[in-house]
Write a structure and sequence with these properties.
Helices cover 40% and strands 13% of the residues. The mean pLDDT is 95. Belongs to the HAD-like hydrolase superfamily. CbbY/CbbZ/Gph/YieH family.
């Protein structure tokens, strides 16, 4: 299945981690710093990477081996989450960078399709998301940047995407969600929107469980997937 021609679209919504930025090392370092603080053994980076995508709280719960909340009391989990967030705020840009081709593709889309509005919708807390976007030169491309604590629900609940559609005066059929995980594709599907699955990202293996409208292997393909003006 292909996307509609860009003339029929109004809104592109991008995930952040694993789609616009490679934040793997800073996230895994922050998780292992938290585990060390709690006196727990470190986890392999590859294991922690599989925990990314559902927000900071779930990342911490998975790292503690307690995603269902059966093993630890909530106070312990909140202490762990607080340490993780405090550490990550300081170290979020130690190794994080924009994927190759992202800035060029966003600029190409802006030039070729100036009518298209672009936004970020991530499950990462909103303040780090905005700070990273500002520091890495992403901010000027997006009219809004919403995080996992911007609403009372997170992706794949469609509330965030539906809010962006309302703000951009776009219908679901005029909207494309771009992300590297099943969470992003399900968000699009739950809102009735189109989707692009990014196979280069942190959670690309999860794309096998869903059906994106189309796939891309590099950010450099975004403009060509959308098609000519």
């Amino acid at each position: 299945m292909a996307l509609p021609p860009p003339s029929q679209l109004r809104l592109l919504v991008f995930d952040l981690d694993g789609t616009l930025i490679d934040s793997r090392q800073d996230l895994t370092n922050s998780v292992n710093a938290m585990l060390s603080h709690l006196g727990k053994p470190a986890l392999p980076d590859a294991v922690i990477t599989t925990y990314i995508g559902d927000g900071a709280s779930m990342l911490v719960r998975r790292a503690l081996g307690d995603p269902e909340g059966d093993l630890h009391d909530e106070e312990y989990v909140q202490q762990a989450l607080t340490f993780f967030l405090d550490y990550y705020r300081v170290h979020k840009l130690d190794f994080t960078l924009v994927y190759d081709g992202v800035l060029q593709s966003l600029e190409a889309i802006r030039i070729a399709h100036p009518h298209l509005k672009m936004a970020i919708l991530t499950n990462k807390p909103v303040n780090p998301s905005r700070e990273i976007s500002r520091a890495l030169g992403l901010e000027p491309f997006f009219f809004e940047n919403y995080g996992g604590n911007s609403f009372h629900t997170k992706k794949p609940d469609p509330l965030g995407l539906e809010t962006l559609m309302h703000e951009a005066a776009a219908t679901p059929g005029q909207t494309v969600m771009i992300g590297d995980s099943a969470v992003d594709i399900l968000t699009a599907q739950n809102a009735g929107a189109w989707s692009i699955g990014c196979t280069f990202g942190l959670s690309a293996d999860t794309l096998k469980t869903v059906a994106p409208t189309c796939l891309c292997n590099s950010p450099k393909q975004w403009a060509s997937i959308l098609g000519p003006a």
